[in-house]
C-alpha cells in the first residue's frame, strides 16, 4: 500500500471521529506549544542579554561598594569606593584601556527658560562615554580639562534634551541644574532603558563638579558608587580583576580575601538576570515534556480503542491480502497523523501566543525555527512510540478471529 | 480472464521438488487438498476439526460444500482461503503448496489468487463501492505498474460486470443487501483470481436477492471462474454442479449433479 493511500486512510479515520481526535491531540498540542514557547522565552532572554552585553561595553569589569561590617547598629560607614581608587586603578593596574567612575547625586530639577524637568545627575569622567559604549547625538562629552578645572558643563540625556529644547539644538545653551547655572556641551543619543536604568533620563556633569555642587553630605565627598574598567582583551580580564582586588584591599586596609568591594564582569551580572527567566523556562520545559507524555498515552489509548472497534475491518483487509506489515503501517500512520496534526495545531498555537505576547510588549518571545522542527519531531516520535504497540496488536490479529468479530 | 491465471507471482517461488512431484498427478487443478487435518487446542483438550480431508477441484468447476454446523466446513473454508494452515497434510492452490507458507506469503496468496464473498458482505462502511472494490489492489505487492488500465478503471469494470455501473460512488449503507453483496463479488473478481470462495453468500439476503446473487455466481462460473461455495441450504447448493457433504470433519459424499 503506498504512502499517500495509507495517509488518506489514516486521515479518513481521524475525520470519522473528529471530537475524539481533537481531544486525543490535546496533549500533543499543549506539549508542542510549550516546547516552542519555552525555547522562545529562552531565546528572547538571550537576545535581551546579548543586547545588555553590548550596552554595558565589552570586556568590562564592574567594581561596586558593598556595605562593610561597620555599617551595623546605627553607625553608617559610607561606601569606601572613591574617585581616588579609580585614579589608582588607572595608574597601577596593567591592562585597563579605560577607567570610568560613576557617582549619582540627588535628583535635580533642570530648567531652561520656562521648561523644567526633574532628572538624576550623574558624575562621570572623560572615559565614561567610551567605556560604557554610549553614543553622542551632538556636541562632545566631558573632558579631563572639564574635571580638572571643575567647569560647569553638562551633557544631557536624550529625553532631558527633548523636554527642555524640543527639536532645537541645546549645544552652548545655559541651563539651570538645581541652583547651578551650567553650559550644555553635548546631547546623548537615544538609548532607552537597559536593566531598569533609563539612560535617556539623566544628565552628566564632571565628577569634580558633582562633589562641589550636588553632594548632599560631606561624608559622600570623593565617593563613587561604581567604577567601570574596560580591559583591552578578554584574556587580560582575570589578571586585571586580581590586581584590582589586591590594590583596593590595600587602599581600604582590608584582607584581600574579604574585600569591601564587589568586583564583577558583565557575565556575572548577566547570569543573575538569566536566572529569573531560567525558572520560567524550566517550568515550560516540564509542562512540555509531561504534556507530550500524557498526549502519547492518550494516543496509545485511543489507538487501542480504535483497533478493537475496527477488528472486523482488520479481518476484512487481511482477507483481501493485507500483510501484518500493511496493517501495522496503517495504524502507525494513523497514530502519526494524530500526533502530527496535534503538532501542527500546537505550532500554530505557539506562533499565535508569541504574536500575542509580542503585541503586549512585555515578555520577549523569539520563535526559533529549529524549535518548531524539534517540537514537531518530538510529536512525531510520540506518535511512533505510542502508536507502535496498538499497531502491532492489530497486525498480529488472527484473520479468522478478526473476521468473526462483532 | 483465464489469461494470467497461471502466472505465478514472482515473490513466492515454488520449490522445484514440490512442483515436479505435484505436476505428475495434477493437470489443471485449482484446489488439491491432500489428507489435511486441522486440530484446535482448547487448553489441554485437542479438538479435531478436520480429520483427513482430500479434495480436488478442477479449473472452471462450481462446487458447493455442505454440512451442519460443526461438520468442519468452515474450517475447510478457512484453509482453502489461506486464512488458516492445516495441522498436517498438503494444500496445493493453483499448483503451489500453500500449507507451510508464512503469514506474509499467505497474505500475498489471498491478495492475488483468492476472491472472498462473505455472508455479511464485509464491505468497509466508510468507503464508496468503487473504493471497496479497489481495496485488494492496494495490497498486491507483486503488482507490475505502468501497464494496463488504472485501478479505478479496473474497479469500474468489475462493478459493471455485476450490474452496479450506476452505483460506483454509493457507500454500503446506501445500497440494498443484494447490491452490497454484488459489490463484494466485484471486489472478489477484480484480481481475476483462480479461485472464488463464497461463504454462505445468500445467508443474509431475502430469497429474491439470493437468487440474483446465485445467478451472478453461475454466470461468472460460465465465464470461466472456479467457484467454491459453502452453504447449508440445499436450494442454493442446487445451483452448483457438484456437492460435497461434510460430517464430523470428514467428507462423507461428493456428488456431481446433472
Question: What's the quick description here?
Answer:
Chain A is of the alpha+beta class and 406 residues long.
List the helices and strands and how they pair.
The complex is a heterodimer of chains A (406) and B (258).
Chain A: H1 3-16, H2 18-56, E1 60-65, H3 83-92, E2 96-104, E3 108-112, E4 115-124, H4 128-131, E5 136-139, H5 144-148, E6 153-156, H6 158-165, E7 174-177, E8 180-188, E9 193-194, E10 197-198, E11 202-206, H7 207-214, E12 226-231, H8 237-252, E13 261-265, H9 266-309, H10 311-319, H11 324-360, H12 369-395, H13 399-404
Parallel strand pairs in A: 4-11, 6-8
Antiparallel strand pairs in A: 1-12, 1-13, 2-4, 2-12, 3-4, 3-7, 5-8, 6-11, 7-8, 9-10
Chain B: H1 16-25, E1 29-42, E2 45-58, E3 62-66, H2 73-80, E4 88-93, E5 96-97, H3 103-113, E6 114-117, H4 129-138, H5 151-161, H6 177-189, E7 195-199, H7 207-222, E8 226-230, H8 234-237, E9 242-247, E10 250-256
Parallel strand pairs in B: 3-8, 3-9, 6-7, 7-8
Antiparallel strand pairs in B: 1-2, 1-4, 4-5, 9-10
Question: Can you give a write-up of this model?
Answer:
The complex is a heterodimer of chains A (406) and B (258). Chain A has helices spanning 3-16, 18-56, 83-92, 128-131, 144-148, 158-165, 207-214, 237-252, 266-309, 311-319, 324-360, 369-395, 399-404, and strands spanning 60-65, 96-104, 108-112, 115-124, 136-139, 153-156, 174-177, 180-188, 193-194, 197-198, 202-206, 226-231, 261-265. With 406 residues, chain A is of the alpha+beta class. In chain A, the strands form 2 sheets. Chain A has a 6-stranded mixed β-barrel. In chain A, strand 3 and strand 4 form a beta hairpin. In chain A, helix 2 runs antiparallel to helix 12. Chain A is elongated, with a radius of gyration of 33 Å. Chain B contains 8 helices and 10 strands. By secondary structure, chain B is α/β, with parallel strands linked by helices. The two termini of chain B are 26 Å apart. In chain B, the strands form 2 sheets. In chain B, strands 6-7-8-3-9-10 form a 6-stranded mixed beta sheet, with helices on both faces. The interface between A and B is medium-sized, with 22 and 24 residues.
Amino acid at each position: 500500500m503506498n504512502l499517500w493511500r495509507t495517509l488518506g486512510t489514516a486521515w479518513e479515520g481521524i475525520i470519522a471521529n473528529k471530537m475524539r481526535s481533537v481531544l486525543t491531540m490535546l496533549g500533543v498540542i499543549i506539549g508542542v506549544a510549550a516546547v516552542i514557547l519555552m525555547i522562545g522565552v529562552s531565546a528572547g532572554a538571550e537576545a535581551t542579554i546579548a543586547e545588555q552585553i553590548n550596552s554595558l561595553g565589552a570586556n568590562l569589569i564592574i567594581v561596586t561598594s558593598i556595605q562593610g561590617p561597620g555599617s551595623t547598629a546605627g553607625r553608617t560607614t559610607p561606601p569606601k569606593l572613591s574617585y581616588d581608587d579609580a585614579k589608582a586603578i588607572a595608574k597601577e593596574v596593567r591592562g585597563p584601556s579605560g577607567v570610568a567612575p560613576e557617582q549619582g547625586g540627588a535628583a535635580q530639577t533642570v530648567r531652561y527658560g520656562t521648561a523644567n524637568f526633574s532628572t538624576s545627575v550623574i558624575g562621570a569622567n572623560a572615559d565614561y562615554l567610551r567605556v560604557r559604549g554610549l553614543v553622542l547625538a551632538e556636541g562632545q562629552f566631558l573632558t579631563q580639562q572639564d574635571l580638572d578645572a571643575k567647569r560647569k558643563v553638562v551633557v544631557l540625556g536624550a529625553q532631558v534634551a527633548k523636554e527642555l529644547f524640543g527639536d532645537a539644538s541645546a549645544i552652548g545653551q545655559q541651563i539651570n541644574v538645581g541652583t547651578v547655572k551650567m553650559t550644555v556641551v553635548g546631547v546623548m543619543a537615544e538609548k532607552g532603558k537597559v536593566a531598569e536604568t533609563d539612560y535617556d533620563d539623566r544628565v552628566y556633569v564632571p565628577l569634580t563638579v558633582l562633589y562641589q555642587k550636588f553632594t548632599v553630605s560631606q561624608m559622600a565627598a570623593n565617593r563613587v558608587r561604581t567604577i567601570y574598567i574596560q580591559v583591552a582583551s578578554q584574556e587580560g580580564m582575570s589578571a586585571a580583576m586580581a590586581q584590582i582586588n589586591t590594590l583596593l584591599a590595600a587602599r581600604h586596609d582590608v584582607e584581600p580575601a574579604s574585600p569591601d568591594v564587589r568586583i564583577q564582569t558583565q557575565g556575572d551580572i548577566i547570569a543573575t538576570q538569566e536566572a529569573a527567566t531560567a525558572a520560567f523556562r524550566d517550568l515550560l520545559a516540564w509542562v512540555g515534556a509531561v504534556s507530550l507524555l500524557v498526549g502519547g498515552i492518550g494516543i496509545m489509548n485511543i489507538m487501542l480503542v480504535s483497533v478493537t472497534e475496527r477488528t472486523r475491518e482488520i479481518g476484512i483487509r487481511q482477507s483481501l491480502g493485507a500483510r501484518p506489515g500493511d496493517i501495522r503501517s496503517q495504524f502507525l500512520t494513523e497514530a502519526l497523523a494524530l500526533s502530527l496534526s496535534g503538532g501542527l495545531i500546537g505550532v500554530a498555537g505557539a506562533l499565535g501566543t508569541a504574536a500575542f505576547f509580542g503585541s503586549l510588549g512585555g515578555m520577549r518571545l523569539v520563535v526559533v525555527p529549529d524549535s518548531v522542527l524539534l517540537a514537531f519531531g518530538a510529536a512525531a516520535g510520540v506518535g511512533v512510540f505510542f502508536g507502535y504497540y496498538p499497531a502491532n496488536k492489530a497486525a498480529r490479529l488472527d484473520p479468522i478471529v478478526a473476521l468473526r468479530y462483532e | 480472464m483465464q489469461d494470467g491465471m497461471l502466472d505465478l507471482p514472482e515473490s513466492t517461488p515454488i520449490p522445484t521438488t514440490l512442483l515436479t512431484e505435484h505436476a505428475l498427478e495434477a493437470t489443471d487443478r485449482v484446489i488439491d487438498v491432500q489428507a489435511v487435518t486441522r486440530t484446535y487446542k482448547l487448553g489441554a483438550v485437542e479438538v479435531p476439526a478436520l480429520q483427513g480431508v482430500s479434495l480436488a477441484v478442477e479449473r472452471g468447476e462450481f462446487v458447493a460444500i455442505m454440512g451442519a454446523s460443526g461438520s468442519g466446513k468452515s474450517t475447510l473454508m478457512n484453509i482453502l482461503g489461506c486464512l488458516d494452515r492445516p495441522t498436517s497434510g498438503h494444500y496445493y492452490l493453483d499448483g503451489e503448496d500453500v500449507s507451510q507458507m508464512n503469514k506474509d506469503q499467505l497474505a500475498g496468496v489471498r491478495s492475488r489468487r483468492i476472491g472472498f464473498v462473505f455472508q455479511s458482505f464485509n464491505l468497509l462502511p466508510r468507503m464508496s463501492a468503487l473504493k471497496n472494490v479497489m481495496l485488494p489492489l492496494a495490497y498486491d505487492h507483486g503488482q507490475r505498474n505502468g501497464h494496463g488500465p488504472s485501478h479505478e478503471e479496473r474497479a469500474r469494470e468489475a462493478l459493471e460486470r455485476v450490474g452496479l455501473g450506476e452505483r460506483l460512488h454509493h457507500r454500503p449503507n446506501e445500497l440494498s443487501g443484494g447490491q452490497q453483496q454484488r459489490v463484494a463479488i466485484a471486489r472478489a473478481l477484480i484480481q481475476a483470481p483462480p479461485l472464488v470462495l463464497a461463504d454462505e453468500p445468500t445467508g443474509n439476503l431475502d430469497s429474491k436477492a439470493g437468487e440474483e446473487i446465485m445467478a451472478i455466481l453461475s454466470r461468472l462460473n460460465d465465464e470461466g471462474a472456479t467457484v467454491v461455495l459453502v452453504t447449508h441450504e440445499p436450494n442454493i447448493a442446487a445451483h452448483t454442479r457438484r456437492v460435497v457433504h461434510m460430517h464430523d470433519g470428514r467428507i462423507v459424499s461428493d456428488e456431481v449433479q446433472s
